[in-house]
């Protein structure tokens, strides 16, 4: 299925879509009793999604810690332990609070929801001082695989934006057996190092000014000295229609005090521009990602039409990269941090992709 939908933030709740999203995952009900149960679940999900209000929640609850691969990962968790798993992946310069309103809604709908701090953020720490503070895409993706292994999760729905979308897309492409489906704000954004060497039109280049700043030692020093102010400026540029308050920003900004934050962020952006080497241990995975592999699992891609850095599109430029069931949606009024700005639309996308 291929579908293009333009969504207003409140006008997209359909009974059929919600029945699909909320029904049990094994099979569609075949008896009248099962169908009635599915309808009741759909009604419940409809109530959950329609009641979401941006900014209604402020806490991610108790942060748990677990050793996973190269890291001790800090993560929030909500929902039934035996529920179908959704892993929500944040971007930069943001943190797990991007999902502060999405997590409780999905938990109320019966999902087990995991929201990890990316390496270099929040309470996540490297287990060894000798591990390179690497931000390349396959390293970050493997962190999520390691977390799934540590939590004994075989497969999950992966949903993200920005860096989180890149991780979701990378895992879906390289390890589809671990990925039930994905929701990817910003589309198909697996990095191509060759493509990144090509110039963009001047206006587009302007939007990525910080990447070129980070290519310099002055940029590294600037990020180190101004972590919070730098992030706030990016928030404002990325989401010009989102008038967040200081308390909202400060809750996320605490995550930027991680001792590895600057090193991971700088390496990520220098690696993208081929100005920093990756680690040999990831070469095989990067070689596969550089071929821009297709994604075969069900997928919903989202664009906010108020995104200040990555303008919304109809998804046609990357449509052929999604070979499974697929829907593209534009969310009115949302900027780059889509799950925090439009938590209802993001939650709906997760519910919908769960039954594709």
From TrEMBL:
<dbReference type="GO" id="GO:0016020">
    <property type="term" value="C:membrane"/>
</dbReference>
<keyword id="KW-0732">Signal</keyword>
<feature type="domain" description="AB hydrolase-1">
    <location>
        <begin position="84"/>
        <end position="324"/>
    </location>
</feature>
<dbReference type="InterPro" id="IPR000639">
    <property type="entry name" value="Epox_hydrolase-like"/>
</dbReference>
<dbReference type="InterPro" id="IPR029058">
    <property type="entry name" value="AB_hydrolase_fold"/>
</dbReference>
<dbReference type="GO" id="GO:0016787">
    <property type="term" value="F:hydrolase activity"/>
</dbReference>
<protein>
    <submittedName>
        <fullName>Alpha/beta hydrolase</fullName>
    </submittedName>
</protein>
<dbReference type="Pfam" id="PF00561">
    <property type="entry name" value="Abhydrolase_1"/>
</dbReference>
<feature type="signal peptide">
    <location>
        <begin position="1"/>
        <end position="34"/>
    </location>
</feature>
<dbReference type="InterPro" id="IPR000073">
    <property type="entry name" value="AB_hydrolase_1"/>
</dbReference>
<dbReference type="InterPro" id="IPR019546">
    <property type="entry name" value="TAT_signal_bac_arc"/>
</dbReference>
<keyword id="KW-0378">Hydrolase</keyword>
<dbReference type="InterPro" id="IPR006311">
    <property type="entry name" value="TAT_signal"/>
</dbReference>
<dbReference type="InterPro" id="IPR050266">
    <property type="entry name" value="AB_hydrolase_sf"/>
</dbReference>
């Amino acid at each position: 299925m291929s579908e293009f939908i333009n969504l207003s933030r409140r006008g997209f709740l359909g009974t059929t879509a919600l029945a699909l999203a909320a029904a049990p995952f094994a099979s569609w009900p075949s008896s009248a009793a099962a169908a009635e149960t599915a309808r009741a679940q759909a009604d419940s999900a409809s109530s959950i999604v329609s009641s979401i209000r941006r900014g209604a929640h402020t806490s991610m609850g108790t942060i748990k810690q677990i050793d996973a691969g190269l890291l001790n990962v800090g993560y929030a968790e909500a929902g039934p332990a035996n529920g179908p798993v959704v892993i929500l992946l944040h971007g930069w310069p943001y943190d797990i609070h991007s999902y502060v309103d999405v997590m409780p809604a999905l938990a109320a709908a019966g999902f087990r929801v995991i929201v990890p701090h990316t390496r270099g953020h929040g309470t996540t720490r490297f287990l060894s001082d000798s591990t390179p503070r690497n931000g390349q895409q396959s390293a970050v993706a493997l962190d999520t695989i390691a977390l799934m292994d540590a939590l004994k999760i075989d497969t999950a729905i992966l949903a993200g934006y920005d860096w989180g979308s890149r991780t979701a897309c990378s895992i879906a492409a390289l390890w589809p057996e671990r990925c039930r489906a994905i929701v990817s704000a910003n589309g198909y954004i697996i990095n191509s190092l060759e493509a990144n060497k090509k110039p963009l039109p001047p206006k587009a280049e302007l939007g990525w000014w910080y990447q070129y700043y980070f290519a310099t030692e002055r940029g590294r020093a600037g990020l180190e000295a101004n972590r919070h102010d730098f992030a706030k400026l990016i928030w404002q540029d990325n989401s010009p229609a989102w008038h967040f308050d200081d308390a909202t920003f400060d809750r996320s900004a605490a995550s930027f005090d991680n001792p590895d934050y600057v090193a991971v962020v700088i390496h990520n952006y220098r690696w993208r521009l081929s100005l920093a080497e990756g680690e040999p241990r990831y070469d095989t995975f990067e070689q596969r990602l550089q071929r821009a592999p297709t994604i075969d699992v069900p997928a919903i891609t989202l664009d906010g039409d108020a995104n200040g850095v990555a303008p919304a599109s109809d998804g046609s430029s990357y449509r052929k990269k999604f070979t499974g069931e697929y829907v593209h949606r534009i969310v009115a009024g949302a900027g780059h941090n889509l799950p925090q700005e439009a938590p209802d639309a993001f939650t709906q996308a997760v519910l919908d992709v769960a039954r594709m």
